[in-house]
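Practice problem 4.
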């Protein structure tokens, strides 16, 4: 069936709407552009053709829906990008239509799940087309699993599950989107027992670039199933996740704050925790060292006991360090993850990461580097300025659980653990200082990594969800040759024209 529209000052344009045409999209020769202006022109055409198929799904600058969706990014650097149009599918069947026109018109595009990325052009794009999955946000309990749309936020998931004394291996901040978090791996309060969040994926529904909607699990398309567990959003658009659930009531949280003098003891205790985490895999810790006004440097630790064991020896080790504040509270996961929703809005942030072997001495050396790079005058230039490093244990049990759940693409073996991955995050409101803060953050990573190499304590893993744009090529290399070859073979099989590699926004490509 042919449908025709008059577009762009009288250009008469016809398009097919048959199912056969959708399947043929991947073999059509894409348009080639000679100028940015012609690319924008054809992007606008693609938007209009999609609008003809999906009335009400497309919005443009100045439209209320467009303006509202632009506000839903966590950080300023994402919201400042302005696509030519935004497309909001409401069902999986909308997406083959969108991908067909993207392929035919050779349109650069971005995919937004929760919009929580620190890298500016991951889930939004300038002068392209943004697919906003916000309306694919259903959360439904189904037996021993929960079926979740990629546009849901984790606060929605926990809210539903809390009411049934259930939970899932998910994010620690409620405003994080489900889709990007899971496809990047996902570190969770439950990871000490259950592994990465992606290890809890039982199946996925994905729309491939040729318009096919397929179910993926360990029995159906097992190569694609493994590649999607940590491989990012480069192989299609996920429209549904089926995740394992477990029984869960309240968790016990403990927040402890320390003066700078305690940092050495914290690192030593963290090394001991990582080494002996098998004593209680239901305890998770998140230590941070913060540089901010007026204290300059201080440390904090959040300890979460998912089995509510007040007598855990691991918790007592942290509580025994002299501290200035400590508070414990029993809460539901929905409440706990709401505490991680601060930030975002008018701020810009820059983040980077590296992985090291478990060693307190190296952590101390990295803190010295961090301290040497911090400039107190920055605290006076920008009231919002803050920089923090966090250290997250990757326990041996965490890695074993991933293997026992069927494996993922991240490339770990049981022998790799215990590890720690360090992230550094700089928040500021003065965007003119972006280059300066990025340089300082990258300098910390490179100098800390150099110290790790010198001490024979480095590890190649770079966590996708924390990686900076500069680290993009290191992410997939860090998975190892076997994983990288699998990713490439899966791409060639399911996206032979490399539409996602050529046209999807963002630096994280294999």
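Answer key:
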């Amino acid at each position: 069936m042919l449908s025709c529209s008059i577009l762009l000052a009288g250009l008469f344009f016809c398009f097919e709407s048959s199912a056969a045409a959708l399947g043929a999209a991947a073999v059509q020769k894409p348009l080639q552009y000679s100028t940015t202006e012609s690319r924008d022109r054809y992007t606008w055409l693609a938007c209009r053709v999609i609008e003809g198929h999906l009335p009400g799904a497309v919005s443009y600058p100045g439209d209320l829906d467009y303006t509202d969706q632009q506000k839903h990014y966590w950080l300023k650097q994402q919201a400042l990008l302005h696509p030519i149009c935004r497309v909001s599918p409401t069902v999986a069947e909308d997406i083959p239509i969108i991908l067909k026109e993207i392929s035919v018109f050779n349109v650069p595009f971005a995919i937004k799940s929760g919009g929580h990325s620190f890298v500016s052009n991951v889930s939004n794009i300038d002068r392209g087309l943004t697919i906003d999955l916000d309306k694919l946000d259903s959360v439904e309990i189904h037996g021993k699993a929960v079926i979740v749309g990629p546009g849901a936020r984790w606060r929605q998931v926990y809210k539903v599950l809390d009411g049934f004394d259930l939970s899932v291996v998910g994010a620690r901040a409620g405003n994080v989107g489900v889709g990007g978090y899971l496809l990047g791996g996902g570190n969770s309060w439950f990871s000490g027992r259950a592994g990465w969040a992606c290890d809890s994926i039982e199946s996925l529904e994905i729309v491939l670039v040729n318009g096919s909607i397929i179910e993926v699990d360990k029995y159906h398309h097992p190569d694609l199933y493994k590649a999607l567990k940590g491989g990012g959003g480069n192989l299609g658009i996920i429209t549904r996740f089926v995740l394992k659930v477990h029984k869960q009531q309240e968790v016990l949280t403990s927040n402890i704050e320390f003066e700078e003098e305690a940092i050495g003891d914290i690192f030593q205790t963290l090394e001991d925790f990582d080494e002996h985490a098998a004593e209680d895999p239901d305890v998770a810790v998140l230590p941070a060292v913060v540089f901010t006004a007026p204290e300059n440097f201080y440390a904090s630790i959040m300890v979460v006991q998912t089995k509510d064991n007040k007598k855990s020896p691991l918790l007592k080790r942290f509580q025994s360090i002299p501290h200035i504040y400590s508070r414990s509270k029993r809460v539901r996961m929905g409440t706990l993850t709401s505490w991680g929703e601060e930030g975002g809005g008018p701020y810009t942030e820059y983040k980077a990461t590296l992985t090291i072997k478990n060693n307190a001495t190296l952590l101390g050396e990295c803190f010295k580097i961090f301290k040497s790079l911090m400039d107190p005058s920055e605290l006076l230039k920008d009231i919002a300025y803050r920089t923090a490093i966090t250290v997250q244990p990757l326990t041996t049990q965490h890695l074993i659980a991933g293997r026992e759940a069927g494996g993922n693409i991240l490339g770990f073996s049981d022998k790799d653990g215990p590890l720690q991955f360090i992230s550094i995050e700089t928040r500021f409101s003065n965007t003119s200082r972006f280059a300066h803060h990025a340089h300082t953050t990258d300098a910390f990573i490179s100098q800390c990594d150099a110290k790790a190499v010198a001490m024979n304590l480095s590890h190649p893993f770079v966590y996708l969800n924390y990686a900076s744009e500069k680290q993009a090529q290191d992410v997939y290399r860090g998975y190892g040759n076997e994983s990288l070859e699998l990713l490439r073979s899966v791409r060639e099989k399911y996206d032979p024209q490399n539409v996602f590699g050529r046209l999807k926004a963002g630096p994280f490509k294999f």
